[in-house]
Amino acid sequence: MARLAAKAVSKTYGATKALRRGDLEVEAGEVHVLIGSNGSGKSTLCKIVAGSVRPDNGELLFEGHPMVVSGPNAARKIGIGIFYQELSLAPHRTVAENILLSDLPGGVFVDRKALNTKAQRYIDLFKNVTGDNFHAGAIVETLRPDQRQLVEIMKALSSEAPILIFDEPTSALDRAQVDRFFEILRELKDDGRSIVFISHRMDEIFALGDRVTVIRDGETVATKRIAETDAAEVIRLMVGGDETLTAAEPHQPTAVAATAKTVLAVDALSGDGFGNVSFNVAAGEILGLGGLHGQGQSAVLRALFGATPPTSGTVLLNDKALASSSPRATINRGLAYISGDRRRDGVIAGRPILENVTPVHALKQRLSLATPSSLREKAKPALEALRTKFAGFSHPIGSLSGGNQQKIVIARWLIDRPDVLLLDDPTKGIDLQAKTDLFQLIRKLAAEGMAIVLYSSEDAELLGNADRILVFNGGSVTRELTGADRTPFNLYQAAYEAA
């Protein structure tokens, strides 16, 4: 009998089906790996089991008995602990307080000595790999990313739960830390604990797992014993076919002629989150940046734009050196940057649509004064090209849907055509029709000679639109896919096996 079972679990957010049918059975004394592409439903299934998300349908069983997980506290009482991919630490509290956060007493009277002594048990598990200045009394916000990740792992371990879920726990850890963590998990498995482990790294899956469950497009498609499968079969299950699969989108990009002028040349670029990245982009070319999420793709684009300037390397724009010292400087040289995080990098909250669509135009044209009517006339062609739906320029940006807000952000860069368009996961959180409109326009801009660099967390967007795809891992380019090599299998293989 499985210790934990999820049967036909589903979850929908509006029109988005995050999980169509999630099935999972976890035995006592095993490490059960969950794998699937970005957005396949892995994390949603785990959050449902851990009580932080309520399912729409389906059944959860603990040791054969139905269970209702009304929230995280209820899950902990049942015996389920979880490490969340998005760290849930209290930055102003100490390491010890964060490790024992769920059991921390209220009020100001806390027995610090007893608290630190109890937390030290979990800190000692990672002795010699935590790094400098890591101790029970250290404030979490002063720690490095890898140290904060260790605190989150320790917090999950402190639950002493018979079922532990780890959602990509090794993403920020170094090799020594990963090795020690795996030793701990093997010891827990030998003690009879059940471990659910989400990872994108094939080496981790085959080094640690006993069984693997593959989720594709929100549905559990297979469970295999690790000893009876291999990386190629797992990737085929994730893709949904064989190695000859072609791009999922109907549009097949046409390769840019070898004689096309190089617009952007990047050589040995390094910075925060990436190193020694080199590539060229020609006029009329869409260059895709692929690979698992957070492997340096966004960091490279932000560095080129000057949001986080690079530390070394050279960039040529139209054969002249580009100093990515600030966004203002790169905008004036002909770069445009569109982020999928429109709240952070896009919309000007609380302001009218006209003010949101025209600031780049005002900067590039050095406008000190301009009439609203003249600005409206400048903005209309770009908005119409994107089929933007809005009642009037004076309406607040917040009155629009997410997709139309993103169209406003994109349109602001197209009033005065840039030489290079940097797209940083631009369709994140927008509807299918808005995506379709955006990519139709992107292909049209490329056909007119614009150089475009596209990072997308959705593989189908890259396969359907990019002439070439550079696969990133660990902050560097590990493989280039061109022509007939641009298939889902090759993209998955490059991303996951490189990992």
TrEMBL record:
Domain of life: Bacteria
Residue ranges constituting the ABC transporter domain according to the UniProt record: 4-242, 258-499
Name under which the protein is recorded: Sugar ABC transporter ATP-binding protein
Record key words, sorted: ATP-binding, Nucleotide-binding, Repeat, Sugar transport, Transport
Top-level taxonomy: Bacteria, Pseudomonadati, Pseudomonadota, Alphaproteobacteria, Hyphomicrobiales
Family: Belongs to the ABC transporter superfamily.
Pfam (any one): ABC_tran
Molecular functions per Gene Ontology: ATP binding
Residues of the signal peptide: none
Cited SMART domains: AAA (SM00382)
